[in-house]
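input
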Amino acid sequence: MISSSVSSLVVSAVSSGDVPGAVAMMGRGPAVLETVSAGYPEDTVFDLASLTKVVATTTVTLALGIDLGAFAADFGPALSWVGVTVRHLLTHTSGLPDTRKFYQWCTDRSSLLASLYSTPLVAPPGTQVTYSDLGFIALGEIVAAVAGEPLDAAVRRCVLDPLDMTSAGFALLGQAPGIPASPPSRFAAFPPSRFAPTTEPDTGLPPLGVVHDENARVLGGVAGHAGLFGTAADLARFAQWWVSAAGDGPGGPVPRAMRRLATTCQTEGLDGCRGLGWTCPGDRYDILGGTWPGTSVSHTGFTGTSLALDPESGLWVVLLTNAVHYGRDATAVKALRSAVHSAAAAAYLRLPPAGPAARRAGQPSSAIPSRATLVQRTVRPPAHGGRTGPGA
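output
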């Protein structure tokens, strides 16, 4: 049996005190080839941070069939940026700045969204790549408007439940003013011990189950750029589905052809290489360092999380660590991340593709989930100017 050096890398990083804990899962197609945990139990729930962008917001946008060419402004009068499309938001080419510390002057959801919508573009849409939290916050509001329900409810209905991601969801921070009603968080019954610490010790905030991103906190824990929590097994199920052939026909959540489009560079000729949500090889945020095939994509989260997959070979790697509990110096986490992905590629890319009987994450034997929960369609904004989402 082929094994990688990932286990020794993870155990060494934790035992040396460089990171407080880590859980890694690797596989190819439906097969889970290796699972490693150190410092945290395998079923630990992590703040996934910006993995929210691809696992939740990008995927639900595609699942709902939202027209990528539609103008953001058509979904609500507050989204007034001229010329910005849904595709621009997904590819980080909207012209919006990277981030703003809204939490320093905004006290609730309504005031933060008002500040977001009044933020001017720093470049014409489609002319440069600027990784932008702001664009994905806006995209989350578009999803809520189209779905007719809060973002967290839409993600749960369209993505998490169909893929049996049973420990994944948004950790709501209570029904603060301006936050629409949502179904009860699935974390309500989880003991605190299930969560990796999500805040630094000196913040004065509860250390477990509270989203680390400050803007997401003001938004009540539900936002298009951050706020999703989950386990390594949840992300493994997501990766298994993404690289599979599931969804070639009606059903999904997202057809295979659209998933392949999402992992293809959409920003040729610009100063970055982005798919729909995903980071492609050659982008400044690419974490795979040329050791994976050119068809691979990845994404990271500020809290120390990462997800990488290759639709062609079927290889995928989930690495969940904690880059915020010891402070915000992520040097050790980034070094571990680079080493883990290189080791996984070296060990597992030479294996033949896994067969349909291989083990699926968290279950003894099962096929990739493929039950239909949505009718695929293209959603365009109504001619009268669009529905308004929460706070829009």
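quick obs: The chain has a mean pLDDT of 85.
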